[in-house]
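Hi there,

I know you've been waiting on this one. I reran it after we fixed the sequence typo, so this is the corrected version. Both the input and the resulting structure follow.
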Amino acid sequence: MGGKRKHGPLEAEDEMVDTSKPTSVFKPERGRKWTLSVALPGSIVANAQSRELQALLAGQIARALAVFCVDEVVIFDDGQVQNNKDASTEGQIGDAGVASKQDTSYTGYTDPKHFLAHILSYLECPPYLRKSLFSMHPNLQHSGMLPSLDMPHHLKKTEWCEYREGITRGKESGHPGRRNGVPKHDALRTPNIVDTGLSQNIYVDATIPAKTRVTVKFNDPKNPLKEHSGNLEASPVAPCVPREERGYYWGYSIRPASSLSAVFTECAFDGGYDLTFGTSERGMPISNLEKPGPDRQGVPTFNHLLIVFGGLAGLEVAVKADEELRKLDVKTPERLFDYWVNLVPGQGSKTIRTEEAVWLGLMALRDIALRNGRD
């Protein structure tokens, strides 16, 4: 009879599998000034056949935005949503197939641009703030089945970062004020309490309305969680500060646009977008961007990069529905962009869905963004 086989030390080492995740903790290298923006039409939501599919579509887009560190998403109207009686009724039908008065505020069919913004905003918000910032709403009915984004600002109670997202709770009259040589009139000021998901109270010496989401930077950048459990002090900063100062990816902002032209004209960045890509199967292969040629000087550096995706019928219909572009006699979308690119030349399927194109486009342009961004 054979005995049990004994494993030697070398065999034991061979059987060990490295399951560590080096990317589980975001490690910024340096501050980042440049930004990456994505624009897409809200009409893509209305094409989904059920509420569950609409929510999952939004979740798939949110995952792409988070994975590729998108700083801004613009949701524009491409003129393809028909607010007819059938669409409105369908948006009010519950899962049991019975119309409910409580479902009239569901906007997946009647206002898909609002629905997409609602879901993306909910997923971008740190989980510990969602209950305070988002009330119960039919749009969030299937939020429990949506994927987690796990972005750097989605911190757990035991995780430390010198920046953090919080919500103001108002002022505490019993707070003693700051000491250590602070003038008496300053020490008697009553600061705001900010809930940042930590066990400690966070005091911010600023006048901010209650129930306001705020980005804070702790006055002491060292991790105090293991040293003491006392209250902490912080200062409110702009949401872009963690990215610009230290290079943290700090989530994405959401901007609605009434038309394709409004994506450009209402840009919040100084100087607008200085490098733009439009996507279409009628564009040039994206691989041509890196090919040398006598007339090709390479993709320039940029401060603010924008990638625009079309809906089911492409960006052409968005141009046709845009009154401002008609006044300028713009009839083809490629005139709006620095580069008009085809993400998947020779595609095997007749169509590439917008939620798929977002992943493909961000992946294809990631190296260009990292290499050409101007810090």
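Quick highlight: Confidence is low (pLDDT under 50) at residues 83-102, 176-188.

Best,
R. S.
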